[in-house]
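PROTEIN DESIGN WORKSHEET
SECTION A - STRUCTURE
LENGTH: 270
TOKENS:
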């Protein structure tokens, strides 16, 4: 069993972390730095990236800040090229950049879905396609795709977000199977609501509280040390997923009964 295997050492490995300026990406970069991983940080905000890079260096690792919009393939290629120029390899990719697009289906527009897909799916795809050849050539590497519980169970008003995250889950499932023979590990990460700036205006019910991004980062590091196909956290999220697999009708009832989709702050305060 995997828990009895010796953990994969992470010291001196090289990681790219997208969405690294805040939330899960920030926490993951610091968690990797604590393990001695050198990190290339990508996000649109250069000032925030530089600050996170300085925090990583203070933990004893090397860090590179590369302002990147993951929806632009050329910028993603530059990110990978800069990382390769600095360290000569990419051992780990944590594809975490995302955006929360929320709209009731009766008000949904194609633009809503396109905006969500551009970052949450195609942004990840661009990054994987840029990194994958280097990992396959070396027959080693680990790709972590940060999705969401919304990629396992859709919630009301989350159609644009869920569509992209379900697409990402399917891609991760196939990618994992196809790259296995090449020696490249793939892990899909499906957290429930996380306390990040992305959903700071969303109020959630007590049965599904926002978890700290550090909890997700800890799970990512654990999955890198002891590879596994998927991570669903916290336990409440896993429980809802299991129930929904057995009975989508019961899963729908739980979401409806406990208002799992949450409320926008303005709506909640009316």
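SECTION B - SEQUENCE
RESIDUE ASSIGNMENT:
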């Amino acid at each position: 069993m995997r828990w009895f295997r010796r953990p994969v050492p992470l010291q001196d490995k090289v990681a790219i972390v997208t969405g690294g300026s805040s939330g899960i990406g920030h926490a993951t970069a610091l968690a990797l730095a604590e393990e001695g991983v050198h990190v290339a940080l990508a996000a649109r905000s250069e000032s925030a990236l530089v600050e996170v890079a300085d925090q990583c260096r203070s933990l004893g690792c090397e860090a590179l800040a590369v302002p990147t919009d993951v929806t632009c393939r050329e910028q993603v290629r530059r990110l990978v090229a800069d990382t390769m120029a600095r360290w000569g390899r990419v051992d780990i990719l944590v594809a975490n950049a995302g955006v929360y697009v929320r709209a009731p289906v009766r008000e949904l527009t194609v633009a809503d879905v396109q905006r969500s897909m551009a970052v949450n799916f195609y942004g990840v795809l661009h990054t994987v396609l840029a990194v994958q050849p280097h990992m396959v050539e070396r027959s080693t590497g680990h790709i972590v795709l940060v999705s969401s519980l919304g990629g396992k169970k859709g919630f009301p008003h989350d159609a644009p977000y869920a569509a992209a995250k379900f697409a990402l889950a399917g891609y991760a499932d196939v990618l994992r199977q196809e790259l296995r023979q090449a020696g490249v590990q793939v892990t899909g990460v499906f957290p429930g609501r996380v306390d990040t700036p992305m959903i700071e205006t969303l109020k959630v019910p007590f049965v599904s509280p926002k978890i700290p991004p550090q909890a997700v980062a800890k799970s990512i590091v654990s999955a890198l040390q002891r590879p596994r196909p998927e991570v669903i956290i916290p336990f409440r999220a896993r429980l809802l997923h299991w129930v929904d697999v057995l009975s989508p009708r019961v899963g729908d009832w739980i979401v409806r009964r406990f208002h799992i989709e949450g409320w926008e702050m303005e709506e909640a305060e009316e």
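SECTION C - NOTES
The radius of gyration is 18 Å.
Residues 8-269 form a domain with the Rossmann fold fold (CATH 3.40.50.720).
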